[in-house]
Amino acid sequence: MDTNTIIGIVAVVAIAVLLIAWGVWNDRSRKKALAKAEEEAKAKADARIAAEEAAERKSQAAEAEHAQAGATPKPAPTVRHEDTEVAPTPATSATPEPATPAAPTPKPKSVEQPESAGSRIQRLKAKLANSANPFGKALFAILTKDNLSESDWEDVEDTLLLADVGAEASEQLVDELRKDARITGKADAAEVRASLREKLLDLVGRDTDRRLNANKENANKPSAIIMVGVNGTGKTTTAGKLARLFVSEHKQVVMGAADTFRAAAADQLETWGAKVNVPVVRSDKDGADPASVAFEASAKAKEDNADVLIIDTAGRLQNKANLMDELGKIRRVTEKNLPVDEVLLVLDATTGQNGMTQAKVFAEAIGITGVVLSKLDGSAKGGIVISVQKELGVPVKLVGLGEGPDDLAPFDPEGFVDGILA
C-alpha cells in the first residue's frame, strides 16, 4: 500500500470522527435549550397560578366582608334586543350571570281577504259588458235589418257556429228566431234585442240549479270536490281560486295536491293556499301515487272537520282507459273517508269545440257534476256555454274572466247574456 492511499484513508477517518463529534455536541445543545425553555414555561405557569390563587383569596375575603356588612347584590340590567326588553332572572350570587337576549317574536304571515261572491258577479258582469263581443254584435247587426233574406239567415247560423254555440243549438235558435214576428217583421232594435235575449236565456238555462253542492242545505261536511281537466286549461289555478271563493264565504277548506305527475302543481297549489291560510296535503316526492294523496287529504279534512275538501288531479290524457283507472281510483279511496259530492270539469273557453272531445272523455271517466269555464273573456267563443251544457248534460257552475286571484265567480245566465248583447 503506497503512501498516498494511507493518507487518504486517514483523512476520511478523521473527517468521519469530526462529523460524529459535531453531531453529538449539537444534539446535547438542542436538549439543553429545550430543557431551559420548559423550565421557563413552567416558572411562568406557576407564577400565573399563584397570582390567580392570590386574587381569588382576595375576592373571597372581600365577598365575606361585604356579606357581613349586609350588602345586597345589584340587580342585573335590562337587556335590549331589537327593541324588545327582556328582564333576566335575579342573580343568586354576588356576581350576576349575564342575561341571554330573547329571540325576536316572528311576525305573523298576512292572510288575504278574498272578494265576496256577490261583488265578483257584479264585477264580472261589467267585464263582459265592456269587452269586445263580436258574437252578440254580429247577431244584432244582422237581425235588425229589414226583411231578412235567406242569405241573412245563413249569416246568423254561421255567426252562431263560429261562436261555438254548436250545430244543433244553432239550428234550434235560428228556427225560433225565424218564427218570431218581432224579428221577421219591421221591428225596432229594442224589440229585436228583447227577443234575442229571451231565446238565448232559454238556451243557456235561466232556471238551472247552478249551486255548488257544498253550498246546498243538505251538504255533507266535509264536502269533497274533485277537480278534473286537461293540463293547460287552468285547472290547478282554478282549484286555488275556488278555495278563495269558499274562504270568502267563511268556510274552512283543505286542499289535496293529487296532481303528482306535474312537478310544479303541488307548489302552485301551496302558493294559493298560503295566501288564504288553507292547508295543502301533498306528497314528499314527484310521481307518487295520486290516490294516496287523495286519501290523506280526505282523512285530514275529516279530522279537521273542514267544510270543504278540494282535490286537484293530473290532467294528462294518455288514453281513455288509463284516465278512467286513475280517476276512478282517486274517487274510490277518497270515498273511504268522505263521500264525493262534486266533480268539476275545468274547460278553457277559448278552445271552443276543440275541447269538447276531451270533455266527453272526462265526463265518461268519472261522472262530472258541473263545468268551470276558465278564460271566458266575452270573446267570439262565448257560445261554448250553450254547447258544453247541451253536450255534457251538466250546468256551467263557475266562470273565470281574468288572471286575478278573485276572477272566478258563480255563473249568472242573465249577466252572461246581457254582457254578450251589450
TrEMBL record:
It comes from the Bacteria. It is found in: Cell membrane; Cytoplasm. Its EC number is 3.6.5.4. Residues 395-408 form the SRP54-type proteins GTP-binding domain. SUPFAM superfamilies: Domain of the SRP/SRP receptor G-proteins (SSF47364), P-loop containing nucleoside triphosphate hydrolases (SSF52540). Residues 48-66 have a biased composition (Basic and acidic residues). Residues 98-107 have a biased composition (Pro residues). It catalyses: GTP + H2O = GDP + phosphate + H(+). It is an enzyme of class 3 (hydrolase). GTP binds at residues 229-236, 312-316, 374-377. GO terms for cellular component: cytoplasm; plasma membrane. One of its GO terms (biological process) is SRP-dependent cotranslational protein targeting to membrane. HAMAP family: FtsY. Involved in targeting and insertion of nascent membrane proteins into the cytoplasmic membrane. Acts as a receptor for the complex formed by the signal recognition particle (SRP) and the ribosome-nascent chain (RNC). Part of the signal recognition particle protein translocation system, which is composed of SRP and FtsY. Belongs to the GTP-binding SRP family. FtsY subfamily. This is Signal recognition particle receptor FtsY. It comes from Bifidobacterium hapali. The gene is ftsY.
